[in-house]
Write a structure and sequence with these properties.
Blueprint: H1 8-70, H2 75-85, E1 103-105, E2 115-117, E3 128-129, E4 135-136, E5 144-145, E6 149-158, E7 161-172, E8 175-185
Antiparallel strand pairs: 1-2, 3-4, 3-5, 6-7, 7-8
Helix pairs in contact: 1-2
Length: 189
């Protein structure tokens, strides 16, 4: 008997083999895309955490420059005390961010201090990506909400050593992630 064509069983086997041959690479490609997106978020979070440290360092440096311009014999200690506790008229300091308190950092904030204490010590305000590429706590026109939440915390290590911890957290596909950067600041000598 001469039968031409495929039987139903042969067709099902061929479709199964074809499905497995296509599904494997598609699954691998989708996992690679998710891994690339996760790596992008981790890199962005690392930069945002480092920016937090750099901004607090710039606050310390600005206090020193202001004290240096004012003159006196105790420029370094005056600047350090102003950085730790604030001084009128410029009250920008890390006083409100001392452990266990947490603060958010908004480098483009127009007020005297870019550090804002988190209500109830729970920071939930996300960062927004502004149209000029700067991250801010402000939801301005043309900004895009991001999944990132940045916190800053200062801890006294000694009279001349302050530990600054900048943490960025976010969630990706329901999984929480965080990046923490730590630095120690001391007064200018």
């Amino acid at each position: 008997m001469n039968m031409k064509g495929f039987t139903l069983i042969e067709t099902l086997v061929a479709v199964t083999i074809l499905t497995l041959a296509v599904a494997g690479p598609l699954y691998t490609a989708s996992r690679a895309i998710v891994a690339a997106q996760n790596a992008r978020d981790q890199l962005t979070a690392s930069y945002l955490a480092q920016e937090g440290i750099e901004h607090v360092r710039a606050m310390r440096d600005n206090k020193y420059l202001a004290s240096y311009q004012a003159g006196g014999a105790t420029v370094s200690s005056t600047a350090w005390n102003n950085f730790l506790n604030g001084a009128a008229p410029d009250t920008a300091s890390i006083l409100q961010c001392r452990a266990p308190k947490l603060c958010t950092l908004d480098p483009v904030q127009g007020s005297a201090s870019p550090l804002t204490p988190c209500p109830g010590n729970a920071c939930t305000t996300p960062l927004y990506l502004l149209s000029n590429g700067v991250y801010s706590q402000q939801n301005l026109s043309g900004s895009t909400a991001t999944p990132f939440i940045r916190t800053i915390q200062a801890t006294d290590v000694s009279a001349t050593d302050e530990r600054i911890v900048s943490t960025v957290r976010w969630s990706f596909h329901g999984i929480p992630y965080s990046v923490t950067t730590t630095d120690h600041l001391s007064p200018w000598q």
